Amino acid sequence: MSASPLFTPATVGDLALRNRLVMAPMTRSRADDAGVPGELTALYYAQRASAGLIISEGVFPSAMGKGYVRTPGIETDAQVAGWKRVADAVHAQGGRIVMQLMHAGRISHPSLLPGGALPVAPSAIPPKGQTWTDQGLQDMVTPHALSTDEIAQVVAEYRAATRRALDAGFDGVELHAASGYLPEQFLSSGSNQRTDAYGGSVANRARFVLEVLAAMVAEAGAGRVGLKIAPEMGYNDIVDATPQDTYGHLVEQIAPLNLAYLHVALFGTAVDYHGLLRPRFKGAYLVGGGLDQARAEALLGSGQADAAVFGSAFLANPDLPERFRRGAPLNAPDKATFFAPGAQGYTDYPALG
Ligand SMILES: Cc1cc2nc3c(=O)[nH]c(=O)nc-3n(C[C@H](O)[C@H](O)[C@H](O)COP(=O)(O)O)c2cc1C
Questions:
Q1: Radius of gyration, alpha carbons of the chain
Q2: Dist CA 112 CA 115 (whole Å)
Q3: 204 C-alpha vs ligand 1 centroid, how far in Å?
Q4: Which of 176, 214, 330, 337 is the most buried if burial means most Cβ atoms within 10 Å?
C-alpha cells in the first residue's frame, strides 16, 4: 500500500507541520461571559494536537466583533491569558495552532455588544434571519454603516488582535473572510452598497480585506498569516452578484502579501473555484468542506491541495489522524452539543484505546 499523502510533513509559511491534516475553525461557545476561554478549552484543543495544524474557533478581535453568546475574544488581558493556556497545552503535545480572527459585523445583535450598540457593517442593510441570544431567537437588526474613519479603526483592531494572539503564544492568525461575517459583507455586492473607496467595484469591495490582511502581516509577518474564504457559501444571507470576479480579483491582489496560506472551503457550488484560485496563489493551499479521507488523499495526491481541512470529523474524533492511519471507524458528531455549555460533546469524545 502506498503511503498516504496525509502523513507527509508540510511547510505552511513559517510553520513546519508534521502532517497535512488541519483542524477546521469551529465555534464551540464554551467561553465565559467575558469572552475568556477556560481550562476545558485548553483540554479540547490539546486532545486534538496531533493535527498538523489547528485553526482555532472564530475569536472576536474587539468586543464589537462578537457574534454569538459565549464566544471568546482576544482583546482583554484575561482573554490573552486564557488563550495562552490553550497555546501552551497544544504546544506541550507538539502541535501547532493559529487563531482565527472573526468579526461578525451585522451578524451580531445589540444584546451581545457593548452598551447595546448596533452591529456594524459596510452598509445599513439588515441580514434576513434570526440570531440566538440569551433572550432566545431574535430578529437581526439594521446595522450601523461604518464611516471611513471607523473602518480604519476596525483595521487597527485586527492588527492589535494579531499582536495579542502572538503574545498568547499562537503560531499565527487566520482572517475569517467567509460565512457572511464582516469581511465577506464588504466583499459582497448584496451587503456592500457603499459609494466610497470601499464599495462599488470589485476592487473597492476587496479593499477592506486587503487592508486587514496587510495590518495582520505588518504585525505577524506574512509567514504567519492565512486567509479563509468560502465563495458562494451563502451562509448568513450573503449574496454577491459576480463571485468568480470577486474572488479571482481578491486572490490576485493578495499575491504581493506572500501569505502563509489560502484556506478555501467549498459547499456544493458548481463552479471550479480551486481551478480558478489555486493558480493565482503561491503559498500553501488548504482545502476544506465535506472532505472524507479518500477525497482528501485524492486532492493531496493530485497536487490540488497542500493540506486538507476537517471540521466535524475532528470535532468528534480527537485522534483523527491516528484513526485515518489505522483505518479505524469514526465517532459521529453530536449536533445537539456543538454550541452547548460544558464538557459533554466537547472533551468527552473517546480516542482509540
Ligand atoms: C460546530 C461548527 C462551528 C463552526 N464554526 C466556524 C468558525 O468559527 N469559523 C469558520 O471559519 N468556520 C466554522 N465552521 C465551518 C468549518 O470550519 C468547516 O468549514 C465546515 O465544518 C466544513 O467542514 P466539514 O465538512 O469537514 O465539517 C464551523 C463548523 C461547525 C461544524
A1: 19
A2: 9
A3: 28
A4: 176
From 299, 102, 15, 260, select the one nearest 310 (Cα to Cα). 299
Local confidence pLDDT in tens for the 353 residues of the chain? 458 999 999 999 999 999 999 999 999 999 999 999 999 999 999 999 999 999 999 999 999 999 999 999 999 999 999 999 999 999 999 999 999 999 999 999 999 999 999 999 999 999 999 988 888 899 999 999 999 999 999 999 999 999 999 999 999 999 999 999 999 999 999 999 999 999 999 999 999 999 999 999 999 999 999 999 999 999 999 999 999 999 999 999 999 999 999 999 999 899 999 999 999 999 999 999 999 999 999 999 999 999 999 999 999 999 999 999 999 999 999 999 999 999 999 999 999 98
Q: To which H or E segment does residue 120 belong? A: strand 120-121
- Partner residues linked to 265 by β-bridges: 288
Ligand 1 centroid distance, CA of 149 (Å): 32
288 lines ligand 1 (CB under 6 A): yes
Which amino acid residue places its CA nearest to atom 7 of ligand 1? Answer: 26
* 216, three cell numbers: 495582520
CB atoms within 10 A of CB 91: 16
- HEC states along 95-141? CCEEEEECCCCCCCCHHHCHHHCCCEECCCCCCCCEEEECCEEEECC
- How many whole angstroms from 26 Cα to the centroid of ligand 1? 5
CA distance 341 to 229: 28
Ligand 1 atom nearest 338 alpha carbon: 1
Domains, the chain, with CATH or none? 5-337 (3.20.20.70)
